[in-house]
């Protein structure tokens, strides 16, 4: 049973990472509408994510459905504690979708309104996701629905927004190029500094997950990788390599999530949180894992095909 629970947790972690990497980039592009005001770059930015944003949210559906089926105890505890930020996130994602889909066919006045909704909704969705993560890390065992608005979850929300903005800058530098290169390069530097400061504040305010992760070889390795990726990002930001900046930022975010997952493994190993106790029955987990073995490769194949078809620069 413990092996099934660990495998189920790995599947959930993979779905989470895929969502953060794919839709996080889209949300970052949406938030950049706050800073990029010209219509032509905005049109190209919106068109660069139009073919992929809805498929990216597939991973959020897989994550939520899988959590309900595989870990109903965790699902119930998280939803009872985080129903406010989860509702904010879902509403924001709907508004983001509306702004993206209707922008190209709207009148000038409606388009101006949608261009306000898009960055606001993208930013609120990103903040809500970070606040949920911060609440789970710092207050997983509490039952206060307002705990997500404490200082630590708020900093986590702002930190995730800064990472998404870095992803968005890398994306538009790669997919759009000269029209936004200079402005996106300057913004990348500011967001990188903000990201580093917020990550440092988060680690100082809540050191337990990082300290538990440090007990394992994987945690030490991931910590070193994070430091190396920060150095790589400094170099890439100076050289203006959009695609490489995007890849390095994705790797940086992935390493942070994996380090947190290592810390959660430490919580489980120290009997502070048991995946087995919160998991569903062996039969249920087996059926869901078999289904995941079919659905996940198909979803990955579809994503690969879409990215290949729309791999060029947006004109």
From TrEMBL:
What is its membrane topology? Multi-pass membrane protein
Name the major location: membrane
**TM ranges:** 12-36, 81-100, 112-131, 151-172, 184-205, 217-237, 244-267, 287-310
Q: Which InterPro entries does this one have?
A: Cyt-d_oxidase_su2 (IPR003317)
Example GO CC term: the record gives: plasma membrane
Gene Ontology BP annotations: aerobic electron transport chain
Q: Report the locations given in the UniProt record.
A: Cell membrane
Single GO MF descriptor: oxidoreductase activity, acting on diphenols and related substances as donors, oxygen as acceptor
- What's the superkingdom here? Bacteria
**Entries under PANTHER family matching the protein:** CYTOCHROME BD2 SUBUNIT II
Q: Which UniProt keywords apply?
A: Cell membrane, Membrane, Transmembrane, Transmembrane helix
Q: Could you say which protein family the record assigns here? A: Belongs to the cytochrome ubiquinol oxidase subunit 2 family.
The protein's name in its UniProt record: Cytochrome d ubiquinol oxidase subunit II
């Amino acid at each position: 049973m413990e092996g099934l629970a660990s495998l189920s947790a790995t599947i959930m972690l993979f779905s989470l990472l895929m969502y953060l990497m794919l839709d996080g980039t889209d949300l970052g592009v949406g938030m950049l509408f706050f800073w990029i005001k010209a219509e032509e770059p905005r049109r190209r930015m919106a068109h660069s994510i139009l073919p992929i944003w809805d498929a990216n949210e597939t991973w959020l559906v897989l994550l939520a459905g899988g959590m309900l089926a595989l870990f109903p105890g965790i699902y119930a505890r998280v939803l009872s504690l985080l129903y406010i930020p989860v509702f904010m996130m879902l509403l924001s994602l709907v508004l983001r979708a509306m702004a993206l889909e209707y922008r190209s066919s709207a009148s000038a006045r409606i388009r101006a309104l949608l261009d306000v909704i898009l960055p606001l909704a993208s930013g609120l969705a990103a903040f809500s996701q970070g606040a949920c993560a911060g609440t789970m890390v710092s207050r997983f065992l509490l039952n206060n629905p307002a705990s997500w608005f404490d200082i630590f979850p708020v900093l986590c929300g702002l930190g995730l927004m800064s990472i998404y903005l870095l992803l968005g800058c890398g994306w538009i530098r790669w997919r759009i190029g000269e029209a936004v290169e200079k402005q996106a390069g300057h913004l990348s530097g500011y967001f990188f500094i903000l990201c580093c400061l917020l990550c440092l504040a988060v680690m100082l305010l809540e050191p337990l997950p990082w300290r538990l992760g440090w007990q394992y070889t994987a945690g030490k390795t991931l910590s070193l990788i994070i430091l190396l990726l920060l150095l790589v990002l400094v170099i890439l930001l100076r050289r203006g390599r959009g695609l490489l900046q995007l890849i390095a930022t994705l790797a940086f975010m992935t390493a942070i999530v994996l380090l947190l997952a290592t810390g959660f493994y430490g919580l489980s190993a120290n009997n502070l949180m048991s995946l087995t106790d919160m998991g569903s029955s062996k039969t249920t987990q087996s059926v869901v894992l078999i289904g995941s073995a079919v659905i996940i490769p198909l979803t990955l194949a579809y994503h690969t095909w879409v990215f290949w078809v729309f791999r060029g620069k947006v004109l």
